[in-house]
Amino acid sequence: MTIIAEEVLLLAHEEIEGKQLVSSAHLDSALGGALLADLAVNGRIALNGKKVVVTDTTPVGNEELDAVLARIAGDPKERKPETWVYKLQSGKLRKRLLAGLAERGVLSENHRRILGIFPSTRYPELDPSVERGIREHVQSVLAGAAPDSRTAALIAVLRAAKIDRKAFPGLDKKRVKEITEEEWIGEAVAKHIASMNAAAAGGAIAAAT
User: Fold this and answer.
1) Has residue 203 been placed in a domain?
2) Which residues have C-beta within 8 Å of that of residue 82, sequence separation ≥ 6?
């Protein structure tokens, strides 16, 4: 059984060569949001006003999710969802999840060096049936099937990080908006990415002047 963050990872990589389809910054933000999405779908957290609150401290049974749940529950402050996206996203998280998928035989790890110098790892699929099942379910919802809360959350995170258009070329944007318009975690991921883009643009302008 995959968690939403792992499903995001699979859809964000090209199947044959394992090439990443979006920037690491966007993908890492999506993964941080996906951890929140899984906790929300499993009834562990909710949005209270503009802040994330823990509604049930019972462990989910997944190491990554339970660590995040404990972290949110142990925080003395209630925080906005986009703040948690920022706090949870990291390259280390992405690498842990990829390594976990490789350990379970879903992906393989291909190590190489760019220009013979810079180390790089790609993750082509070893067991394509896992992503195929995820893709078929998402496509059925995009085609008109009623989404469950989990699939709606997944699509919202994909949309926020612009992974949806890479993973499902030609998708109906109106349908995606319809599915995700009330998904607060997707909105949080989008806000975090927008703030990163604004900061990068501000830095570029400062450097130019």
Assistant:
1) no
2) 188, 189, 191, 192, 195
Tokens of 58: 């019972």
Query: Which pLDDT belongs to residue 162?
Result: 95
The terminus-to-terminus CA distance of the chain in angstroms comes to 51
On whether the CB atoms of residues 201 and 208 are closer than 8 A, the answer is no
Whether residue 190 lies inside any domain: the answer is yes
Q: Long-range pairs for 58-62 at CB < 8 Å and ≥24 separation? A: 62/3, 62/38
Burial (0-12, 13-18, 19+ Cβ within 10 Å), 50? exposed
Burial of 117 (0-12, 13-18, 19+ CB in 10 A): exposed
| DSSP codes of every residue in 49-80 | TTEEEES-----S-HHHHHHHHHHHH-SS-B-
Residue-level pLDDT at 180: 96
Q: Which amino acid is at 17?
A: E
What CATH number is associated with residue 111?
Answer: 1.10.3630.10
Higher pLDDT, 112 or 179: 179
Structural domains counted in the chain: 1
Q: How many CA atoms lie within 13 Å of 98's alpha carbon, on the beta-carbon side?
A: 23
What does the pLDDT look like over 96-139, one tens digit per residue? Answer: 999 999 999 999 988 766 666 666 778 899 999 999 999 999 99
